[in-house]
Design brief:
The structure holds two protein chains of two kinds.
Chain A (H helix, E strand, L loop, with lengths): L15 H12 L3 H17 L40 H33 L5 H28 L10 H15 L2 H12 L9 H27 L5 H16 L3 H28 L1
Helix pairs in contact in A: 2-3, 3-4, 3-8, 4-7, 5-7, 5-9, 6-7, 7-8, 8-9
Chain B lengths: L3 E3 L11 H15 L8 H8 L23 H20 L7 H6 L17 H4 L19 H4 L3 E2 L17 E2 L9 E2 L15 H14 L13 H17 L12 E5 L5 E5 L6 H5 L1 E3 L10 H12 L11 E6 L2 E3 L4 E2 L9 H6 L9 E9 L7 E6 L8 E5 L6 H5 L3 E6 L1 H9 L10 E6 L2 E2 L12 E10 L1
Parallel strand pairs in B: 1-7, 3-4
Antiparallel strand pairs in B: 2-16, 5-6, 8-17, 9-17, 10-15, 11-14, 11-17, 12-13, 12-15
Classes of the chains: A mainly alpha, B alpha+beta.
Chain lengths: 281, 466
């Protein structure tokens, strides 16, 4: 006797490719979340203009891969002179930028959560369970996005070229928050939201996804919002994505939190210095 | 490096053996040192845990204990190693301790599985030292009164690892797979979802913490009880009983910080402590595997041994049946659940095969305010006899579930039980019986099964196929 000795009669073995795909998705139930994040990153790189549109304030800041990611956020950096701030084009551009940013940055962050949901829910509803979790997260971040886009539309933005000290100050505030007990509590809580596991618990998993991302917003939101409302480079997005993901998967999470705080402070300070130099020039 | 021998406290042969006299005197000194001194008992306890477990640890030396993780065994091994060094360094300066005892002193272990050893060792229960005058530093008044009075003993099922535990994989990345050492994780302090304890952490580790009570119930205070160190020495011994043939690789990515007997910072990792004689300078006097503790467990051990050994399945497991909350309050609780079929992905990944190689039972999302001080046996099938006992659940650290939303979790390999039920035509997937029954402590005066205990909630019970 080894294990359960019964076999399902009359079944034909699947094709080798089918087996290989099933094994891959069985081992990596998070594959589609990673794919969505990768597509979002490609879209962000693809859509960053090589020349900043006229009318959008610009400043040379450290970048990765493309000149100035800030131009994508036309709505996020104050209204452009040629279009009203509440126009469909501006709001649509802002919403697209926000959605891409959330997918690109929160996709990697959610990988451990998606794997956990896949491992603990009934296998027959595994795909639906992970989808409900991600849907709950997107709901929460969409609400945050409405606030960010609204703030941008009324000009509540920071341009390092005009307000370098304010940008540096925001960076310090976010770094200080990173080191606060509130951040530690939020990070701990978002790890600990329990997942309803049964076949009929779809709504419960959506709710758990909302709760999970609610704590994620408390944990990661200040950094995300500060970045979104500040003219920023793709480098800052990369730094934050790596840092926020590391907080969840690093062998020493507290060290990852501290390192991200330092990285945020340095990144915003660099942007402020570059902006200040631009003003002086 | 001279090699010292760790010996069974119940086999030392005489009351207040010189090893225990030396230990008592050293602990007495440690109790007088300021908490800022790394050699003090207070500091050593804080290395394990500090205050509210929801708070981040104050530094990399304190609040570092590893539980529900594959680092449970290596971290505690290093913890004992430095504690033992500190005790030995203090003994050199205690005139009452003979030099030969001080130089070769090694931490004894409490092998509660030995016949007659299920009660607290008498030297730890005496309020006074051997001279009858001085206070006994080994006595901890916070323990359960019946434990200190030695009118309570461990149930035999609480004293040895579960039937299959010593043969299980050391670790797994999946919470649904039963392991010896715990879920593969990063530095871990009840922070990660889905991390479950290994079999050796489950029983006897957690059960004995619950049995002793008082300081032993909480992470931050457990090290204040001198018997904590003998208990963990026995848990450490079980790693040697099992052997190191299938110890994991890749777990040295995490390092641990300790302070040695001189207060100097030391950074160590899991790979540095697998060879006790070569790397740490100690051996155990007895590494014989324990016998099953009851006739029913002997039946299960025989049945399990008849199963052909095969490598652990490489594909991830899948939950096939689950149910929600159960409240345990000291009485028997029946928790039926339904088991359905596997997913198409499970079947395709195994070339069309839908039958599992292994079956596991997970008991997760366990929460409560206070340790109830008892364990619960988890049985599969309609008859809650020990041949169908999957394992015990107990509640060390349950206080930490109050603040942060974290929970306790256990996984048991029940392949042989399900196989036996099928062979007996008693396995009905539509009506799988999971039964919880209180286990221990055994009291001299009354039956343990009185049906009244501090409640705990079990959030989910699942059957997992691999």
């Amino acid at each position: 006797v080894n294990g359960i000795p019964r076999r399902t009669p009359g079944t034909h073995p699947p094709a080798p490719l089918t087996v290989a795909v099933a094994r891959f998705t069985s081992r990596h139930p998070e594959w589609w979340v990673v794919l969505a994040a990768a597509v979002a990153w490609v879209a962000l790189l693809w859509t960053v203009p090589t020349e900043v549109p006229t009318g959008v304030p610009t400043v040379e800041v450290p970048t990765v891969g493309a000149a100035d990611h800030g131009a994508l956020h036309a709505a996020a950096h104050g209204p452009a002179p040629s279009s009203p701030p509440w126009s469909a084009a501006v709001l649509g551009s802002g919403a697209t930028a926000w959605l891409l940013m959330v997918l690109a940055m929160m996709g990697p962050v959610m990988v451990p959560r998606v794997r956990h949901v896949a491992a603990t829910c009934v296998g027959r509803v595994r795909a639906a369970a992970t989808a409900a979790t991600v849907a709950g997260a997107l709901l929460v971040w969409s609400v945050v996005g409405v606030g960010v886009i609204g703030a941008s539309a009324v000009g509540l933005t920071l341009d390092p070229g005009r307000m370098p000290l304010a940008v540096a100050g925001v960076g310090l505030l976010v770094a200080a928050y990173q080191l606060s007990p509130a951040k530690a509590t939020a990070l701990s809580r978002c790890h600990a939201i329990r997942v309803p596991r049964g076949e009929a618990d779809g709504l419960g998993r959506l709710t758990a996804g909302v709760a999970y991302s609610g704590w994620c917003v408390v944990s990661c939101g200040p950094a995300m919002v500060a970045m979104a409302l500040t003219r920023h480079s793709l480098l800052l997005m990369v730094v934050l994505t790596v840092g926020l993901t590391a907080e969840r998967v690093a062998h020493r999470p507290r060290r990852a939190v501290r390192r991200l705080a330092a990285a945020v402070a340095v990144s915003f300070a660099l942007a402020a210095v570059a902006g200040g130099a631009h003003v002086l020039a | 490096m001279a090699t010292v021998e760790r010996r069974d406290v119940y086999a030392l042969g005489e009351r207040w053996h010189p090893i225990l006299r030396a230990y008592a005197l050293a602990v007495g000194v440690m109790r007088t040192l300021p908490a800022t001194d790394a050699r003090s008992l207070a500091y050593q306890a804080s290395v394990h845990g500090v205050g509210d477990e929801a708070d981040p640890p104050p530094d990399s030396f304190r609040g570092q204990c590893q539980h529900n993780s594959w680092y449970f065994l290596p971290w505690h091994r290093w913890y004992l190693f430095y504690f033992e060094q500190i005790v030995r360094s203090l003994l050199v300066d205690i005139d009452e301790v003979p030099a030969e005892v001080a130089e070769s002193w090694a931490l004894p272990y409490w092998n509660y599985a030995r016949t007659g050893a299920g009660r607290l060792p008498p030297e730890f229960a005496a309020p006074r030292l051997w001279d009858g005058r001085r206070r006994n530093p080994l006595f901890d008044p916070t323990r359960s009164p019946a434990v200190n009075a030695r009118t309570a003993r461990l149930d035999p099922r609480q004293t040895v690892p579960g039937v299959r535990v010593l043969r299980q994989p050391f670790s797994s990345t999946s919470p649904g797979v039963a392991t010896f050492g715990g879920t593969a994780s990063g530095w871990h302090h009840f922070r990660e979802p889905g991390a479950v304890a290994g079999g050796i952490e489950t029983t006897p580790h957690n059960d004995v913490h619950g049995f002793v009570g008082g300081n032993m119930w909480r992470f931050a205070e457990a090290g204040l009880d001198p018997v904590f160190w003998l208990h963990h020495c026995n848990i450490d011994r079980y790693w040697e009983v099992r052997g190191h043939a299938t110890d994991p690789s890749g777990w040295a990515a995490v390092s641990f910080d300790f302070r040695d007997a001189e207060g100097a910072a030391r950074t160590v990792d899991a790979d540095g402590c697998v060879d006790t004689a070569g790397q740490l300078g100690y051996v155990y006097d007895d590494v014989t595997p324990p016998a099953p503790p009851t006739p029913g467990q002997r039946v299960r051990a025989t049945r399990s041994a008849q199963m052909a050994e095969s490598p652990p399945p490489e594909l991830p497991p899948e939950v096939v049946g689950t149910r929600g909350a159960v409240r345990l309050e000291g009485a028997r609780v029946d928790a039926p659940l339904q088991v359905g079929g596997v997913s198409s992905t499970f079947r395709k990944a195994r070339g069309g095969r839908s039958e599992p190689q292994r079956v596991f039972l997970t008991i997760e999302d366990i929460t409560g305010d206070i340790n109830p001080g008892i364990s619960y046996g988890v049985y599969v099938g309609e008859d809650a006899d020990d041949s169908m006992l999957a394992g015990l659940i107990s509640f060390f650290g349950i206080e930490s579930t109050r603040a942060g939303g974290h929970a306790l979790g256990y996984t048991f390999d029940v392949t042989d039980i399900v196989s036996a039920l099928r062979d007996d035509d008693s396995w009905d997937p539509a009506d799988v019986h999971v039964i919880f029954r209180p286990v221990g402590p055994v009291l001299d005066e009354e039956e343990p099964d009185s049906g009244d205990a501090v409640p705990v909630e079990v959030g989910s019970i699942s059957v997992v196929y691999q």
